[in-house]
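Here comes just one.
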Amino acid sequence: MKRIVVLISGTGSNLAALLRASSDPSYGAKVVAVVADRPAPGLKWATTCPTHVLALANYPSRADWDRALARTVAQYKPDLVVCAGFMKLLGADFLAAFPGKVINTHPALLPAFPGTHGIGDALAYGVKITGATLFYVDAGVDTGKIIAQVAVPVCEGDTEQTLTARLKKAETEQLVREVGRLSSRA
């Protein structure tokens, strides 16, 4: 059984889906801890594993926060660290502690529309197809090696809200499927 630590910042819908999937022993992975960068509402889903809140404001520097985050996650000996709506960039110390083990989701077909405004940028550009990308985190912003992508059509009259809802569903399904697939690898 692969050990997963999930990092969150918000409502935790991806976390909830991973927890549901990992409650089935045949999934091959188990969420063993959840870490948030603030008192995130999504922590409520983590009723079967430890949770931690490491607010950046509580550390003298971003590097100190990054090292504390790495220490907190390391105590759970994760096979995979899943950024599920985690809205902080991970620093060099964290990434060095978990080489090739940190994955993230993004609501666009990378390398197009990286950053925090991917959905709005895609709409402003006028694309007819966007999607969600799952990728390995590296030192860049949404630049890591792509694991999987799923396409989502942009419909006439879409707003950020309507497109976000469809992207979120596709993103969550892809995340759960691919984490299961990654967990089944030897």
